[in-house]
């Protein structure tokens, strides 16, 4: 199963991307939709919210009055924490149920507006970010959602910056043009990267680099940081260190476009355990002991695991 994280600032066009991915065959898990489902009338979630914050958070028909809930739940840190303790576990449980229900070889897209803000990017095999310029987003929010310009700006300011999203993005989707142009980008990524990536993960195939030498690309280190963050999630406390060892600018010569990452562990047993964890995900083992490669067709890489004892 390939897990894609989909995010973007409010008004950037994430819904268009999600709809197109669903049309192409992805299983969409919409975090906002789940968050609404777990507090619908008759659910334990809504009952617990009323017990915590009172009947004034309900509309006359018994549904949740979200602005009223926000007014009381975000008045201080204690109330916000209480809200999160009620809602987040239920969202997590429902998300797990949907993942289990998905076909074993599905491409699962986690549509999460606050993916970057909540530090969830490293839990995904691939992160897609939808981008539009701030004024475009303000115009869309005022014309399509009825927000005031000031409200739109405040909502945008409360989210991650474009720089933070770009640092987390494996795929950057430009929605400064037409919706047709955005959909075409999605189709291109689906057919050239996502589908072969899923196939490689499912079959245990790795991606070998083109042996042609290339000039240093400053984007390599940013790519390596994303891979390393992912590896820390997978390795847990087994790794002593995970470092990007090349190619780097100070090599002085053109090199093969291949990220080299080294994981150091305490013992040979730890080395074997991490190898199993990597092989179960998107980093299949090579014939050489301790060496793993990537399954992402757009990012050739090698991970060398060694123990210090």
Automatic annotation (TrEMBL):
Q: Which GO terms describe its cellular component?
A: cytoplasm
Q: Reply yes or no: does the keyword ATP-binding apply.
A: yes
The UniProt function text for this chain reads: Catalyzes the phosphorylation of the 3'-hydroxyl group of dephosphocoenzyme A to form coenzyme A.
Q: Which keywords does the record carry?
A: ATP-binding, Coenzyme A biosynthesis, Cytoplasm, Kinase, Nucleotide-binding, Transferase
Q: Which NCBIfam families match?
A: dephospho-CoA kinase, PRK03333.1
Upper lineage is:
Bacteria, Bacillati, Actinomycetota, Actinomycetes, Mycobacteriales
Q: Which domain of life is it from?
A: Bacteria
Enzyme superclass (EC)? transferase
Q: In which pathway does it act?
A: Cofactor biosynthesis; coenzyme A biosynthesis; CoA from (R)-pantothenate: step 5/5
Q: What is its main location?
A: cytoplasm
The subcellular location is:
Cytoplasm
- Provenance organism: Hoyosella rhizosphaerae
Catalysed reaction(s) here are: 3'-dephospho-CoA + ATP = ADP + CoA + H(+)
Q: Which residues bind ATP per the record?
A: 11-16
Q: What is its EC number?
A: 2.7.1.24
Q: What is this protein called?
A: Dephospho-CoA kinase
GO molecular function list: ATP binding; dephospho-CoA kinase activity
